[in-house]
Specification:
Number of helices: 17
Radius of gyration: 31 Å
EC number: 2.7.11.1
Protein name: Receptor-like serine/threonine-protein kinase
Largest sheet: 6 strands, mixed
Helix content: 10-25%
Number of strands: 46
InterPro entries: Bulb-type_lectin_dom, Bulb-type_lectin_dom_sf, EGF, G-type_lectin_kinases/EP1-like, Kinase-like_dom_sf, Prot_kinase_dom, Protein_kinase_ATP_BS, S_locus_glycoprot_dom
CATH topology of the largest domain: Transferase(Phosphotransferase), domain 1
GO cellular component, one term: membrane
Strand content: 25-35%
CATH class of the largest domain: Mainly Alpha
Strand order of the largest sheet: 39-43-44-42-41-40
CATH architecture of the largest domain: Orthogonal Bundle
Bound molecules: 2-acetamido-2-deoxy-beta-D-glucopyranose
Structural class: alpha+beta
CATH superfamily of the largest domain: Transferase(Phosphotransferase) domain 1
Shape: globular
Main location: membrane
Distance between the termini: 80 Å
Number of domains: 6
């Protein structure tokens, strides 16, 4: 009792020391931290390091990280969720059962400490930790009762190694995207299982490794005792490889000092750098910074000479090395950075070159620029001729495929997009001629009157020059065309529904059914028509007065909680759509947990069964279907009052009506399944093989995901086969998108329509459709055309420019 009568301040004093101890050493089960601007952290006993939430620059997002805590600018040395930052209120907890988890405010696990499987296949269990601690080395450990480590941050590195940390066989450091973007970047340091330490680039998102730009040469196949076993960063700041015979191979041999902090970081520009920072107590004032003491490779621009990958600067750029040994990236004239925030991500052409200039002369459309000492040693030449400066310059200007011509030692090397591994090397006596479309070419009217139109896109990232090639030379016909286009534009605008009409439409057009109605109509949900990502579809029959109508009843069973709230809104949006290439919604039922949609019945099955079936539709009807589906998508994306992203375009979702007109089904449902509160919980929608790369990255989902899926489907329509056919005799043909691009590159498109005589006799159209499809499946969403532009290109109203390689980071290109 006496204890409780103590005055409060004294009581607090008693508590304080134990509180501090528990903060600085052992972290007990049940402890947690919550992400906020002022959130506390768990510190190492010396106070050098802290573990906790690190706030991203100018953002309300946090990384679970470890950083140097005693220097003014927090420098992260480890982070868990770079690809997946946590929002305010997220929580990291050492759970009662000894696990370390990071959870979002609504309870989803964003990250957890999982056991890493060693190269020898042994996995250590993370469960059963008795406590955790942040050691003075900067290593965060989960400790079992027997003092062995269940998990340690040192074995799960991000982009940095600290003194006393080792990289084991198979271990990887990954660079960040940019200094402030902690998403996984393109570069990695990898201690290969055979003993070589390499720096290489990976092709995101699949993480395929390209040729190394640094190799330690510590893999001895003849005598494995001479092979590398681990990479060591020792206490005094030395970095070396220890071989199996315990000999060492020095990497960094600078003179260490106890008065410095050290770290070795694989920087976002691909250079592995060891840094030192004077320890604060010795340095006195805080005006210090990290200085590099060692780095490799010394010239990354030159070192990146593998055949694959894109060099250090990405495609269509060139790399120069500064006095500090750091690369800098520049775009060619006529190109701009594809991501202004990340100059290592390559450049895209401001205007896409047109290979069909019609009557206008190349010299009126393009300027030739010169860059001394610049070349692209690893970009394939499509032509090499002996020539002088003028000839080289001219021959590129007049060759529609040529983007750059390099003149070197009396030879002219013509290159087309994409350009890779561009470098400036003053020791090379040569120059590059670059073809740049004139900025005023878009309103250029040549003497014969052919007009260059610039199609408007919603995102103006890649204006594409297109020309009305349909129209011979007559200015009068051009004039008519422009009038026709204007009328069309006005008409399509008027077609759009005004939002105010929304509610009335629901009442007038849509029937509300009871569950019992539908149970009777489907005879107790007896005949199953198919299963989608939303639930099962049943056939049913309605008997309104004097007639019988077949219906398809979709029972939605996987709606998320948010989707539940949005059900009415979404049904409303779907109800307002009316287009001959969409399946029409007739009614709905919402009774407690029962959510059903009633559609008109499509008697001829799916496009999939038609395409992959035994009697394939004719080439002509296939191209017609491709046009019609594209029109349906234009309608969904641009012509209804709220744009609808389908998210799951594939032949299984295209139904055929009585007259074999293709109709898009399942649209408008994506939102019901998608909880877009936190992006992290957004499961990938869509179907493998048809989903765009945005889903795998932290990128906004736009209508361009449908364009991608449409592109894959278009190839399937052209070739009458599935995108992926594992059992293909010829392995190269297994993935349709890759194979078709290969054939396109080799100008052997006849191979993709081999047994289709009708198509073989119409190769111009086959090529045009393939080119459109390749534009659609560009990995970079901003390069994909809008569906409206797709329809123009399919119909031949505009010329299709030459598409670049769809996946620029891969060996396909
Ligand atoms: C941390 O916990 C372990 C096991 O309970 C104990 O042996 C050790 O003394 C603790 N260390 C500190 C500094 O409290
Ligand atoms: C931890 O994460 C892994 C994958 O990230 C997952 O497979 C596993 O189920 C998670 N463990 C727990 C306890 O949530
Ligand atoms: C490894 O060998 C290659 C080829 O001989 C050489 O170019 C490279 O410089 C060597 N790497 C090191 C770190 O010595
Ligand atoms: C670190 O490695 C260097 C080079 O092998 C060696 O000279 C030095 O003694 C090592 N330092 C420690 C503390 O082990
Ligand atoms: C590595 O560096 C250390 C310290 O500079 C030196 O003592 C040692 O001899 C070097 N080892 C080799 C194999 O070069
Ligand atoms: C700390 O970071 C800021 C912004 O990144 C930078 O301007 C400043 O120079 C840094 N200070 C030190 C001491 O490194
Ligand atoms: C390229 O980037 C520059 C600088 O951001 C900008 O001024 C220019 O308009 C861009 N060009 C195009 C065609 O987007
Ligand atoms: C290339 O040819 C064009 C057209 O003839 C000419 O105007 C230009 O000056 C030439 N450029 C160079 C760099 O020689
Ligand atoms: C476009 O600009 C070039 C010079 O940059 C000029 O020679 C040409 O006449 C211009 N064309 C038009 C149509 O303005
Ligand atoms: C980081 O880069 C990735 C990939 O370019 C991007 O998706 C993401 O939005 C960026 N994150 C931030 C915080 O800017």
């Amino acid at each position: 009792m006496a204890f409780y009568s103590l005055s409060q301040p004294f009581f607090l004093l008693l508590l304080l020391p134990t509180f501090v101890v528990s903060q600085t050493s052992n972290i007990t089960l049940g402890s947690y931290l919550v992400a906020s601007k002022e959130s506390p952290s768990w510190k190492s006993p010396s106070g050098d390091f802290a573990f906790g939430f690190y706030q991203l620059q100018n953002q309300d997002h946090f990384l679970l990280a470890i950083w140097f805590d005693r220097i003014p600018n927090r420098t992260t040395v480890w982070y868990a969720n770079g690809d997946n930052p946590a929002s305010q209120g997220s929580k990291v907890e050492l759970t009662r059962d000894g696990k370390l988890t990071l959870t979002s405010p609504n309870g989803l696990i964003l990250w957890n400490a999982t056991s890493t499987v060693d190269t020898d296949g042994t996995a250590s269990s993370v469960e059963g930790a008795a406590y955790a601690a942040l050691l003075d080395t900067g290593n965060f450990v989960l400790v079992r009762k027997d003092f062995t480590y269940a998990w340690e941050s040192f074995n799960n590195p991000a982009d940095t190694l600290l003194p006393t940390q080792e990289l084991k066989l198979g271990g990887i450091l990954s660079s960040k995207q940019t200094p402030s973007n902690y998403s996984r970047g393109r570069f990695q340091l990898h201690l290969l299982p055979k003993g070589n330490l390499v720096l290489d680039t990976i092709s995101l998102p699949k993480a395929n490794e390209n040729a190394a730009y640094y190799i330690s040469n510590t893999s001895d196949i003849a005598n494995s005792a001479n092979s590398g076993q681990r990479l060591v960063f020792n206490e005094s700041g030395h970095i070396y490889i220890v071989l199996r015979n315990e000999k060492i191979v020095n990497l960094s041999d600078q003179v260490p000092s106890q008065d410095y902090y050290y770290r070795a970081t694989l920087d976002f520009d691909g250079i592995l750098t060891e840094y030192a920072y004077p320890k604060p107590q010795r340095a006195g004032n805080a005006d210090q910074s990290w200085s590099p003491v060692w780095s490799t490779p010394s010239d990354i621009c030159q070192a990146m000479n593998g055949d694959e990958g894109l060099g250090s600067c990405g495609y269509n750029s060139y790399c120069t090395i500064g006095n500090n040994g750091r690369p800098s990236c520049q775009c060619l004239p006529g190109f701009n950075f594809s991501d202004p925030d990340n100059k290592f991500n390559g450049c895209i052409q401001d205007r896409i070159q047109d290979c069909n200039p019609g009557p206008s002369k190349a010299e009126d459309l393009y300027d030739m620029h010169q860059l001394p000492n610049t070349y692209w040693p690893k970009s394939a030449n499509f032509e090499r001729t002996q020539s002088n400066e003028d000839e080289c310059n001219q021959s590129c200007l007049y060759d529609c495929e040529c983007v750059v011509a390099v003149l070197k030692e009396g030879f002219c090397y013509k290159k087309k997009l994409p350009l890779t591994n561009g470098i400036v090397d003053r020791s090379v006596n040569g120059k590059a001629f670059i073809k740049v479309a004139r900025s005023n070419a878009s309103n250029f009217l040549n003497p014969k009157g052919s007009r260059v139109l610039q199609l408007q896109k919603k995102d103006q990232s890649t204006p594409i020059l297109v020309r009305s090639f349909l129209l011979g030379g007559s200015a009068f016909i051009n004039f008519l065309l422009i009038i026709a286009i204007s009328i069309l534009a006005i008409w399509s605008c008027n077609k759009k529904q005004k939002p105010s009409q929304m509610s009335s439409l629901l009442e007038s057009n849509l029937q509300s059914f009871t569950y019992q109605d539908l149970e009777e109509a489907t005879d107790g949900f007896k005949e199953e028509l198919g299963r989608g990502s939303f639930g099962i579809v049943y056939k049913g029959v309605l008997h309104p007065p004097h007639s019988t109508i077949c219906i398809a009843v979709k029972k939605l069973d996987k709606i998320t909680q948010e989707g539940e709230k949005e059900f009415k809104t979404e049904v409303n949006a779907i109800a307002k759509t009316l287009h001959k290439n969409l399946v029409r919604l007739m009614g709905f039922c919402e009774e407690g947990p029962h959510k059903l949609l009633v559609y008109e019945f499509m008697s001829n099955g799916t496009l999939a069964s038609l395409l992959y079936g035994d009697c394939r539709p004719t080439w002509k009807s296939r191209t017609q279907m491709a046009f019609e589906i594209a029109r349906g998508l234009v309608y969904l994306h641009e012509e209804c009052s709220i744009p609808i992203i389908h998210c799951d375009i594939k032949p299984q979702n295209i139904l055929l009506d009585d007259s074999f007109i293709p109709r898009i089904s399942d649209f408008g449902l994506a939102k019901l399944l998608m909880s877009n509160q936190t992006r992290t919980t957004t499961a990938i929608r869509g179907t493998k093989g048809y989903v765009a790369a945005e889903w795998f990255r932290n990128m906004p989902i736009t209508t361009k995901v449908d364009v991608y899926s449409y592109g894959v489907m278009l190839l399937e329509i052209i070739c009458c086969r599935k995108n992926y056919e594992e059992e293909r005799e010829n392995e190269e043909e297994a993935i349709l998108t890759d194979w078709v691009y290969d054939c396109y590159k080799e100008r052997r498109l006849d191979k993709v329509v081999e047994n289709d005589e009708e198509a073989i006799n119409d190769m111009t159209k086959v090529e045009r459709l393939v080119m459109v499809a390749i534009w659609c499946i560009q990995e970079d969403p901003s390069l994909r055309p809008s569906m409206r532009k797709v329809t123009h290109m399919l119909e031949g109203v505009v010329q299709v420019p030459m598409p670049p390689c769809p996946t620029p980071f891969t060996s396909l290109c």
